Amino acid sequence: MQSWPTPGLTPLEPMPGSVHLYDTAARAVVPVELAEESGRAVAGLYVCGITPYDATHLGHAATYLAFDLLIRQWRDTGAAVTYVQNVTDVDDPLLERAEATGVDWQDLAVEQTDLFRTDMTALRVLPPDHYIGAVEAVPWIVPAVEALVTAGIAYRVPGTGGEPDGDVYFDVEAARSTGWRIGALGGYDPDQLLAFFGERGGDPDRPGKRNPLDALLWRVAREGEPQWPGGVLGAGRPGWHIECSVIAERFLATPFTVQGGGNDLIFPHHDMSAGHAQALTGRPLAHHFAHTGMVGFEGHKMSKSRGNLVLVSRLREAGVDPAAIRIAVLGQHYRSAWEYTDALLTVAQDRLARWRAAAAVADAATGPLRGDVDDADTRLVERLRDRLRDDLDTPGALAAVDAWAATVLGARDDAAIDGDIDHGSDTATDTGTAGEPSLGRRAVDALLGVDLAPETAS
């Protein structure tokens, strides 16, 4: 599956160091240690992608922006990063939406995946190196499920009530023999596990299962549903969790560095994916698990099922600069739960205008003003690295850019009072002709992903 274009980047000279991140499994902010290959640090990142049955909302955007920032910080340390993301382009929610709207499920998946790519491009989100759909992964998933059956860690369930025989389930008790423990990732108690499983795509009441928490690996063919050859499993389609396990293991050496996604994926999705992977390879799926908080609107978590969505595409259609959308999201810490309001967007738009005004001054500064700008730029780079390498502290990073902008614009005003600016030219004014990008502008682009070039201003 095709990814989206890489935004134009203005990298800084790398500064070695480590990035600290909150690890869900460790329940703490920890230094993320990277592997080394041929003398260079390397990182592997897998982030769960969309189920493409509706447009990208700000909750989605917040997750992908968070891990975009993680990649940017790793690269700023000099590390090479391999990034993998899936698209769940066949699953019950997609099929149900297609049936309800009278649209072919494949057409709906293509349409919404294309819109997602467009939104990610507009937000300047770094694209995955491998962007893989569940459908294209079916030939890899089938032998994995067969291997779990052979190992005694998966089993078939007889059909009841007119359902066919042969759905394959992951045996969570048998999987304990591999060293994996259900619920360990999130630290949830049994009642929470059961509740989350039922709320998040599981089927705890399915007759014939050995444990209510056993997860579907392979759904045998039903009339009217999409299906693929399944070898000895019979025709059918894969479950949700095994999709990510297999795709991750195909493109990343396990255990890879970070598994990421929204915190509603901690259980069952990430827990089960880790269990499937460990049962298949005997190794953990990832060293670290990182999760983003939920974004609310109108008093509830944004969700496609509820319909309380703020869509990135709608904001763009209304003329909102994507850089302002990005700043609005980055104004909240990635792990926090927060509520979107129009006021947040207004603050972000004002911030963007100030930052671009300061960038224009910084780019064009000469004479004594140049020295003031250079000092401010150097302090900005130091503060951005300090804040973003500490659990992606974007509120602190944005405050650092605010301080930089205030310093640069203040220095411009002082220079005008002192007569160091020639008002007969455009040099060093907030609407002046930009020179080479200043260090400050390049840092905001490289580390925060916000382009302050004046030609992008709306």
Q: What is the helix fraction of residues, given as a range?
A: 40-55%
Question: Uncertain spans, ≥5 residues at pLDDT below 50?
Answer: 423-434
Give the CATH architecture of the largest domain.
3-Layer(aba) Sandwich
Estimate the mean pLDDT confidence. Answer: 94
Per CATH, the class of the largest domain reads Alpha Beta
Percent in strands = 15-25%
**Whole-number total of structural domains:** 2
Task: Spell out the helices and strands N to C.
Answer: EEEEHEHHEHEEHEEHEHEEEHHEHHHH
Tell me the major beta sheet.
Answer: 6 strands, mixed
The fourth-level CATH homologous superfamily of the largest domain is HUPs
**Gyration radius, rounded:** 24 Å
Count of helix runs: 13
| Secondary-structure class | alpha/beta
Note the overall shape.
elongated
CATH topology tier name of the largest domain = Rossmann fold
In total, how many beta strands? 15
**What is the CA-CA span between the terminal residues?**
32 Å
